[in-house]
Amino acid sequence: MMKTDVLVTGAAGFIGGKLMQRLRGAGGDVCGVDLRPNSAEMLQADIREPSQLAAVFESVRPRRVVHAAAIVDERVPAALVRQVNVDGTANLLDCCHRFEVERLVHLSSIVVLGFDPGPMADENSPLCMDTGVAYFDTKAESEKMVLDASRAGRVAPVVIRPGDVYGFGSVPWVDRVLGLMRRRMPVLVAGGRGRMAHCQVENLIDALVLALDRDNIAGEVFQIHDGGEGSTYREYLTRLARAAGLSEPRYSFPRWLALTAGLCFEGTHKISGVSIPWTRGAIRYLCRQASYSIQNAEDKLGYRPRLDLDEGMILLAQQLSTG
């Protein structure tokens, strides 16, 4: 049996992988676990299986845990999303309690506030568990579960609630969108006037490291993004196209047409299982006008965004050009 300082779930994923790189680069004692490990140094386990997860905890005895494992794709069957995002989190909480983990950093999302919580929504805004989108609802339910466990004294968690996380390797905010652009499909909806709370992944990793190390923040929720009120999707997608050397998006779907297409796509997916470009939930999200406060993260976590959107896109352009 060995003792590990930090265990990261979902370590083969976009955010978990970036965190592993950061911690290892700083000389940290870190271990990763994933359903599909992508290195020989990573453990394999299915967080839906309590015995597999307990075996990992028994093996490495982590002092601190970052829970990044989740299904984020709204096109995945709702039952599977629930098994991973809710049941998996319940299993993780049991292990953290049983093995006396000192700190759990739970990776949530601003989607727990629903489609449009209004201007500068903060950590006191109500969770929304009835949007009808499995990813949104299960992330809200899992966050509530973590905070309930904190109030019961079973764990000492910190909840990090990031905005729309982009960067090299981001599937929903980079890879999937660039794929549509390369096929010359419209990517703007309703003129691209919806607001995006973009969060450069390196800014998020900064926040996760702070959440691991900062004292006296157990039970806190921190929203994390690049600062301000975000940008419109047109502004974000224009910069993304430039970073990839593609033509700037010009054509836009009317909202009603995008929703109708989403309904048709969902029906096709249900019947045939083929991959679809978007769902109605994704369109509603793209049209939101909400903004999100990071004041609590600035005041109590000491978080300051290092990269704004322009700087983040410069970094992304360099990474895209080198592969």
What's the topology here?
Elements: E1 6-9, H1 14-25, E2 30-34, E3 43-44, H2 50-60, E4 64-67, H3 78-98, E5 103-107, H4 134-151, E6 157-162, E7 164-166, H5 171-182, E8 188-189, E9 195-196, E10 198-200, H6 201-213, E11 221-224, E12 231-232, H7 233-243, E13 252-253, H8 255-272, H9 280-286, H10 295-301, H11 309-322
Parallel strand pairs: 1-2, 1-4, 2-3, 4-5, 5-6, 6-11, 7-10, 8-13
Antiparallel strand pairs: 9-12
Helix pairs in contact: 1-6, 2-3, 3-4, 7-11, 8-9
Average pLDDT number: 95
Count of helical segments?
11
Indicate the CATH topology of the domain at 6-165 and 198-227 and 291-308: Rossmann fold
Indicate the structural class: alpha/beta
Order of helices and strands: EHEEHEHEHEEHEEEHEEHEHHHH
Largest sheet, spatial ordering of strands: 3-2-1-4-5-6-11
What's the level 1 CATH class of the domain at 6-165 and 198-227 and 291-308?
Answer: Alpha Beta
Largest sheet: 7 strands, parallel
Provide the β-strand percentage band: 5-15%
Radius of gyration from the CA trace?
19 Å
| Strand segment tally | 13
The CATH architecture assignment of the domain at 6-165 and 198-227 and 291-308 turns out to be 3-Layer(aba) Sandwich
Any idea what the CATH superfamily of the domain at 6-165 and 198-227 and 291-308 is called? Answer: NAD(P)-binding Rossmann-like Domain
The general outline is: globular
What is the CA–CA distance across the termini? 39 Å
The oligomeric state of the chains shown is single chain
Fraction of helical residues: 40-55%
Low-confidence stretches: none
